[in-house]
Every structure is written in C-alpha cells, then in structure tokens.
Amino acid sequence: MVQRASDRWISIALSLLLHGALLALLVYGWLMFREERRAAPTPPIAATVVDARTLKGLEQPAPRPAAAPQAAPPVEDVGPPQPTPEERAQRAQAEQAEQARRQAAEQKAAEERAAAEKVAAAKAAEKAAAKAAADRATAERAAAARAAAEKAAAKAAAERARQDEQDRVEREADLKRSLAAEEHADAARNGAALASWESMIAARITRAWLRPPTAKAGIDCMLNVTQVVGGEVTQVTIGECNGDAAVRQSIEDAVYRASPLPPPPDPSLFDRSLKIRFKPD
C-alpha cells in the first residue's frame, strides 16, 4: 500500500490537533485545581463582646482559654478532569492515524530496503559478469600467446631442421667434390700429365742454370721447391746431389731465376711443394 502525500499531511494535522487538545485539557485542569485551593474557607474564630463599664465593678475573671481553631477540611485532589466522549473519540482517531502513519513509514522503509538490496544485487551480478569477462579475455590472450609461442617455436624448429638439412647436403656435396678432386688429382699424378709438368719445370730450371767450372758431367740432384699460386718460388733446398758446393749454389740460383714456374696443364695438379729431379746432362 503506497501512502499519498495528502494522506500524510492529514495524519500530521490530526496528530497536531490531538496533542493541542490534550495540552489544553491539562492546562485547564491545572487552572481549575488552583482556583479551588484559593477559594477554600477560613475557619471561624470564637469571641465574646464585653462592655468596659461592667468590667470596672467586677473582678477581672481569669481569661478563658481561646478555642482551638478548627482544622480546615482537606481539599480532595480530584486530578485533571476526565476527557469527554468526543475527546476520547478524537484521541482514538489520532492514535489510529499515528499507527497507520507508522505502518506506512515502516512499509515504505521496507520497500526502499528491498529496492536497495535489489540494486546492490544487480550491481554485484554486473561486477561478477565483468570480472568473468575479464578473466575470459585474459585466458584467451594467454592461450593466444601460448599458441603464437608454440607456432614460433615450431617454425624455428622447422627452419633449423631445413638449415641442418641444407648444411648436410652441402657437406655431402663438398665431400663428394673433394673426393672427386682427389681422385682426379691422383689419376693425374699417376698419369703422364704430372710427369710432363715436372719435365717442363726441370727444363726451365736447366735453361736458367749457369754451369760453374767445377761441374762435372752427369749432375743429378733432387730439388725441394716451394711455390705460391701463380708459380712464384718462395724457397729452394737441395736434397741428394752429386755436385760440389758451387754446383749446388748455382742450381739454387737457377731455380729462383726460373720463377715463376710454368703452370700445370691440369689445375688439379698444382701443389705448393714440389720435388724436381735436376739432370742437366
């Protein structure tokens, strides 16, 4: 039941009217009680009138004791006047109105509390839903991050595997090329090409040799020659040789004069360290 504003004001007016009437009755009763106390009668005093001439020839009699004053009758405390039936009816009506007002106020307060609790419950539910949504978003981001990390790790692993496979293929290819080059070089060294190249170097050294006077016929010496790419001679040592010191020095000088040495007919025959047999005769 919702109380209207007009009903509220009517209740307030009736309550004020009832309290004013009660206050007026109390004041009226107190005033009446005060007037009754003031109007209470004074007790009479007994006295006798005597002529003064009579008193002259007579002995003065002993004075009679004065009569004791009569006590005033007690004033009955009647209390405040009893309310009239109209006043009792107004008082009962005012009490009913006040009770109705209190009930309406309590009902309104209960409705307000229920509404506040409903709003609080709605806010709590909204907050819980927002937190759940935030938790789901956080979980989704974490899952996406894990998936991205796993994808990146898989991609890196695949790239490493591809690079390892490529390196393995290249190593195998290099090994095959090296083996093929060694086989080709061995074949060339075991063939006539190497002998032909060594003969070309020996002939060039012979042409550059200046025969010393002490050289005898049948000179036969082993030369250890170190060269760089391009045939430039960097070092010469004489091994077994049947010539004297002058012959050995002349042969070493001839090797340096013959530099750069002729290139091999097959590049696979190139070697930095050469053993050349020098037999000028």
Protein model, in words:
It is a single chain. This protein has a domain at 193-278: 2-Layer Sandwich (Fusion Protein Consisting Of Minor Coat Protein, Glycine Rich Linker, Tola, And A His Tag, Chain: A, Domain 2). Helices cover 63% and strands 8% of the residues. The chain contains 5 helices and 3 strands, in the order ααααββαβ. Strands 2-1-3 form a 3-stranded antiparallel beta sheet, with helices on one face. β1 and β2 form a beta hairpin. α1 crosses α3 (85-190).
Give me the secondary-structure topology.
Elements: H1 5-38, H2 52-56, H3 85-190, H4 192-208, E1 221-227, E2 233-241, H5 245-258, E3 273-278
Antiparallel strand pairs: 1-2, 1-3
Summary?
By secondary structure, the protein is mainly alpha-helical. It has helices at residues 5-38, 52-56, 85-190, 192-208, 245-258; strands at 221-227, 233-241, 273-278.
Strands of the largest sheet, in order across it?
2-1-3
Described by the principal axes of the CA atoms, the overall outline is rod-shaped
Q: Briefly note the CATH topology name of the domain at 193-278.
A: Fusion Protein Consisting Of Minor Coat Protein, Glycine Rich Linker, Tola, And A His Tag, Chain: A, Domain 2
Number of helices: 5
Average per-residue pLDDT, rounded, comes to 83
Structural class: mainly alpha
